[in-house]
């Protein structure tokens, strides 16, 4: 359906020309730009920090969907807000005080998101719904692009969709990891409305981005 948004993960882009890559997926029909921040501690990989987000900001007016896979996260929230993030998503597993962290993100005028690793149950969200603009279900173990979709996460997506609707809240339900032409329909059917796509967007190079994004939207 056309209501589904695509958030290309620049983790699969060419890091030697990130600005160009962001402009290319923007022009190709991306709805959000998904930026994966990894610290080599919370996840076994290292990517980029707030200065890179700031440098990318002039290259696109699309929503910067910043996924922080770092612990501790609180000391860096302000820097990512000032760098031009629109949505800041933190991990439920990254600290003991996610409720406070989400309030801090909103107090800086940004949208607040929480992400659940594959092993974390959706029931951990119960006392956070009022603080949330986005829920990100990880359908791979975070750290790398190009991994296979973990299908047990479909029933987590369904359960969260039901809870959001029952509460009548306006919260994006985003899925990250292994979303491609084969898995996309099951993710949409389960109730997701924002799809992260790294390898599925960037495969084939810039001349394919528009076609890749359209295919994920079922167009
Ligand atoms: C994984 C990242 C993802 C990753 C997805 O830790 O959070 O955003 O880039 O890559 P694909 O879409 O290739 O699975
Ligand atoms: Zn991500």
From TrEMBL:
Residues noted as binding a divalent metal cation in the record, renumbered to the chain: 34, 36, 67, 176
Molecular function terms from GO: D-ribulose-phosphate 3-epimerase activity; metal ion binding
EC number(s) given by UniProt: 5.1.3.1
Gene Ontology biological-process entries: pentose catabolic process; pentose-phosphate shunt
Keyword Transferase: no
PROSITE patterns associated with the record: RIBUL_P_3_EPIMER_1 (PS01085), RIBUL_P_3_EPIMER_2 (PS01086)
EC category name: isomerase
Superkingdom, taxonomy of origin: Bacteria
Cofactor-binding details, from the entry: Binds 1 divalent metal cation per subunit.
Pathway: Carbohydrate degradation
Active-site residues annotated for this sequence: 36, 176
Required cofactor names: Co(2+); Fe(2+); Zn(2+); a divalent metal cation
Record: residues binding substrate: 9, 67, 143-146, 176-178, 198-199
Gene3D superfamilies: Aldolase class I
Gene Ontology CC annotations of this record: cytoplasm
Cited CDD domains: RPE
Keywords: Carbohydrate metabolism, Cobalt, Isomerase, Manganese, Metal-binding, Zinc
Role according to the record: Catalyzes the reversible epimerization of D-ribulose 5-phosphate to D-xylulose 5-phosphate.
NCBIfam families: PRK05581.1-4, rpe
Name this protein carries in UniProt: Ribulose-phosphate 3-epimerase
Gene this protein is translated from: rpe
């Amino acid at each position: 359906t056309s209501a589904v948004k695509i958030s290309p993960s620049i983790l699969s882009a060419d890091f030697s020309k990130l600005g160009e890559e962001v402009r290319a997926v923007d022009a190709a029909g991306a709805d959000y730009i998904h930026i994966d921040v990894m610290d080599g501690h919370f996840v076994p990989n290292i990517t980029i920090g707030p200065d890179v987000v700031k440098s990318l900001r002039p290259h696109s007016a699309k929503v910067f969907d910043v996924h922080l896979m770092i612990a501790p996260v609180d000391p860096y929230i302000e820097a990512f807000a000032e760098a031009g993030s629109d949505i800041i998503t933190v991990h439920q597993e990254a600290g003991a005080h996610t409720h406070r962290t989400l309030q801090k993100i909103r107090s800086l005028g940004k949208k607040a998101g929480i992400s659940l690793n594959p092993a974390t149950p959706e029931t951990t969200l119960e006392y956070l719904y009022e603080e949330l603009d986005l829920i990100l279900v990880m359908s791979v173990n975070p750290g790398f692009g190009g991994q296979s979709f973990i299908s047990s996460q479909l029933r987590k997506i369904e359960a969260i969709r039901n809870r959001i609707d029952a509460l009548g809240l306006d919260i994006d339900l985003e899925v990250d990891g292994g979303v491609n032409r084969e898995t996309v329909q099951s993710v949409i059917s389960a109730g997701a409305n924002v799809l992260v796509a790294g390898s599925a967007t960037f495969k084939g190079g810039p001349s394919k981005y528009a076609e890749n994004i359209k295919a994920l939207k079922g167009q």
